[in-house]
Recover the amino acids of this structure.
């Protein structure tokens, strides 16, 4: 059996044998629908889902390549790693009538950028992690503008949450889902392509030596640099390419 065939077999197990996070009835239906949809729109190829802890609070950092990549990653996290994702999502999505209702019903975390409520999202993420949940953040804060699709330098949010909580930080690289809907502008799904959706979890980011202190600017920059380097490595593995050097990976200004 090929690795891709093995992945397909794993995604078809009964849901109760997959999930470590017991879902509420609505979340159970969402996960079932997600699995059904993604098996028809993509061909999943997953690696190292076991690097995501089966229980307890965890921060998962993932690269952002498409408006629909949350579907491919969500498929991996729920059916592959057995965890329900709590995404940190921009406020504009919550303000959409139907999508906003779904995001609130599934306990996603609203991020009000460019406002005095921006810090509330970090607090909500910390509380979710303390409650043993899996919080997902796109460290770049937006779909990458890199011409080759590599992750851009991160904002400081992931580092702030990581240092404040002390939880494991797992980088996840994804590639291929952008063939379903490419680019930064929303467009029509290319459902006829059924691309291979590759997702790989990297080893946890080593941050223990930076914890235990108030996160000053130097520690935040160093934590952001390590998170960026780990994410680049995960994306390089999933793309089977050598990633560009991380450099200093200066975090962006918070907005």
């Amino acid at each position: 059996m090929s690795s891709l065939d093995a992945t397909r077999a794993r995604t078809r197990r009964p849901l109760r044998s997959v999930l470590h996070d017991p879902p509420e009835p609505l979340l159970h239906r969402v996960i079932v629908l997600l699995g059904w949809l993604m098996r028809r729109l993509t061909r999943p190829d997953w690696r190292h889902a076991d690097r995501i802890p089966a229980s307890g609070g965890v921060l998962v950092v993932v690269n952002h390549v498409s408006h629909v990549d949350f579907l491919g990653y969500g498929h991996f996290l729920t059916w592959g790693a057995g965890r329900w994702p709590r995404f940190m999502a921009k406020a504009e999505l919550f303000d959409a009538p139907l999508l906003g209702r779904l995001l609130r019903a599934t306990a996603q975390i609203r991020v009000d950028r460019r406002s005095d409520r921006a810090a509330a999202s970090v607090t909500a993420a910390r509380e979710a992690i303390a409650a043993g949940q899996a919080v997902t953040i796109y460290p770049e804060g937006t779909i990458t503008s890199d011409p080759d699709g590599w992750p851009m330098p991160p904002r400081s949010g992931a580092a702030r949450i990581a240092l404040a909580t002390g939880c494991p930080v797992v980088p996840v690289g994804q590639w291929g889902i952008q063939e379903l809907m490419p680019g930064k502008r929303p467009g029509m799904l290319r459902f006829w392509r059924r691309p291979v959706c590759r997702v790989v979890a990297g080893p946890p980011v080593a941050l223990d030596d930076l914890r235990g202190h108030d996160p000053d600017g130097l520690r935040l920059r160093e934590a952001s640099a390590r998170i960026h380097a780990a994410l680049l490595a995960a994306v390089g593995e999933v793309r089977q390419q050598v990633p560009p050097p991380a450099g200093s990976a200066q975090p962006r200004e918070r907005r």
User: Anything to note?
Assistant: Strands lie at 43-47, 58-62, 85-90, 109-111, 134-137, 169-175, 196-201.
